[in-house]
UniProtKB/TrEMBL annotation:
(6S)-5-formyl-5,6,7,8-tetrahydrofolate binds at residues 25, 82, 135, 484. This is tRNA modification GTPase MnmE. Keywords: Cytoplasm, GTP-binding, Hydrolase, Magnesium, Metal-binding, Nucleotide-binding, Potassium, tRNA processing. The keyword Cell cycle does not apply. GO terms for cellular component: cytosol. Its EC number is 3.6.-.-. One of its GO terms (biological process) is tRNA methylation. K(+) binds at residues 241, 260, 262, 265. SUPFAM superfamilies: P-loop containing nucleoside triphosphate hydrolases (SSF52540), TrmE connector domain (SSF116878). It comes from the Bacteria. Residues 231-406 form the TrmE-type G domain. Its cofactor is K(+). It comes from Paracidovorax wautersii.
Length: 484
């Protein structure tokens, strides 16, 4: 623990701006004298007391509730004082300044500061102390930020489950099974002269197989949780006037992008986050892709290609009313080729055949086939036909987006997860695969097997923070708001 973690801290714990109630929070060892100085009396633990908050001259700043939580029964595991006042920013700043002033004032009896070293908290420092004092693990700490930042109801519920420890419990169960298997391997290494085959009698093969199967289930649920937290970036691309802006508006249910019959109306990206079954999709409308002499439009087209290259999924929009036109089909084929060059094979591209309301169904199918033939005759991408104007086919597109994102119907008990959790679980999977290869070898190298199991355990421990560098902690907690 760094020296700064022993220093008392204070901050406004509610969001900036006006509100009915605002909270100033203080955390640190030995807050009793500060409580007396601020409140004029001792406070009963965990009992709200209504009283005036006064400045150094005894003039009232506000009236509100004071709550005192002695260690270790508090959020941070230290003594915690919360002053709940009216939520005006000036009032809260005055209260915070009063806390710092009262802490620095000399104590009447000893002459020393009432609470030496009280300082303003850094972002996430209250939650960091809760982690360092074993009130929560690192995955639960991250879930607090995810709960605050949740953009959908499903994400909020999943973050709440992670905060309650659902994800951590699965990681701990994996770790316990892994530790047991490591114990067997280490025992075999420590007593090579023994005739007892520890690994065979303990069914090490079966234990490792069960461990891999359990890990696979955790990885599936964690991947779903990461989708709930992160969502996916979906870029709408295509020629001018294919209906890209209309599709964005239709998906968002609002007139976000300007729609006109004039080609090149969209000059820059327009972004909106929507949700489908609780999964956030960050949908980006881009400039129409074509050759242009207009400098402003050329910049928009260049930005469109940048967005396409960074997409998690691309909606390649085709205009069915023009699909049989040779010039249009050739331009679509050129765009398709460029998209294939810029995108990894793992990034899905969905062919969206728009404006079915303008063509007869049979004619529309023929036009789509002709366009596909013009692009090389292969339809390797999933596709959907719709009308952005009437909404026909939008539900099919929504289902397809969830499918290519890898989303499955959310099971009860799904927990939130982050990209670093997925990376750690993938590392565990890789080490267990190497361990299995060693275990199944004709002459297993038990020292290498033991090392792979040790590395797998370290990767698991990194998720909950039992094996984590200070640099990683700094990155995680710096993303929190001040006061949390």
């Amino acid at each position: 623990m760094l020296p700064r973690h022993n220093e008392p801290i204070a901050a406004i714990a509610t969001a900036p701006g006006r509100g009915a109630v605002g909270i100033v929070r203080v955390s640190g060892p030995g807050l009793g004298p500060l409580v007396q100085a601020l409140c004029g009396r001792a406070l009963k633990p965990r009992e709200a007391t209504y009283l005036p908050f006064r400045d150094a001259a005894g003039q009232p700043i506000d009236q509100g509730l004071a709550l005192y939580f002695p260690a270790p029964h508090s959020y941070t595991g230290e003594d915690v004082l919360e002053l709940q006042a009216h939520g005006g920013p000036v009032v809260l700043q005055l209260l915070l300044a009063r806390c710092l002033e009262a802490a620095a004032a000399p104590d009447a009896a000893s002459g020393r500061p009432v609470l030496a070293g009280l300082r303003l908290a850094q972002p996430g420092e209250f939650t960091e102390r809760a982690f360092l004092n074993d009130k929560i693990d690192l995955a639960q700490a991250e879930a607090i930020a995810d709960l605050i930042d949740a953009s959908t109801e499903a994400a909020a519920r999943s973050a709440s489950r992670s905060l309650a420890g659902a994800f951590s419990q699965e990681i701990h169960a994996l770790r316990d099974a892994l530790v047991h298997l490591r114990m067997l391997v280490e025992a075999t290494l420590d007593f090579p002269e023994e005739e007892i085959d520890f690994l065979r009698k303990a069914d090490a093969h079966g234990q490792l197989s069960n461990l891999q199967q359990t890990l696979a289930g955790v990885m599936r649920r964690a991947s779903q949780g990461a989708l709930l937290r992160e969502g996916i970036k979906v870029v709408i691309a295509g020629q001018p006037n294919a209906g890209k802006s209309s599709l964005l508006n239709a998906l968002a249910g609002a007139e976000l992008a300007i729609v006109t019959p004039i080609a090149g109306t969209t000059r820059d990206k327009v972004q909106q986050t929507i949700q489908i079954e609780g999964v956030p999709l960050h949908v980006i409308d881009t400039a129409g892709l074509r050759e242009s002499d207009d400098e402003v439009e050329k910049i928009g087209i260049a930005r469109a290609w940048d967005e396409i290259a960074a997409a998690d999924a691309v909606l390649f929009l085709h205009d069915l009313s023009r699909a049989e036109t040779p010039e249009y089909a050739a331009a679509d084929a050129l765009i398709a080729g460029t998209i294939a060059q810029k995108l990894p094979a793992s990034v899905p591209v969905i062919d969206v055949w728009n404006k079915i309301d303008r063509v007869a169904l049979v004619g529309g199918e023929a036009a789509a086939e002709a366009a596909a033939a013009g692009q090389g005759g292969e339809r390797s991408h999933p596709s959907v036909r719709l009308s952005a104007r009437t909404g026909e086919g939008l539900d099919a597109l929504r289902r397809l987006l969830l499918e290519v994102a890898g989303w499955q119907a959310a099971p009860e008990g799904l927990y939130i997860a982050r990209a670093r959790h997925i990376a750690a679980l993938q590392a565990v999977d890789g080490h267990l695969m190497e361990a299995a290869a060693q275990l199944h070898a004709a002459g297993p190298a038990l020292d290498l097997l033991a090392e792979e199991l040790r590395l797998a355990q370290n990767a698991l421990n990194a998720i909950t923070g039992e094996f984590t560098s200070d640099d990683l902690l700094g990155v995680i907690f710096s993303s929190f708001c001040i006061g949390k």
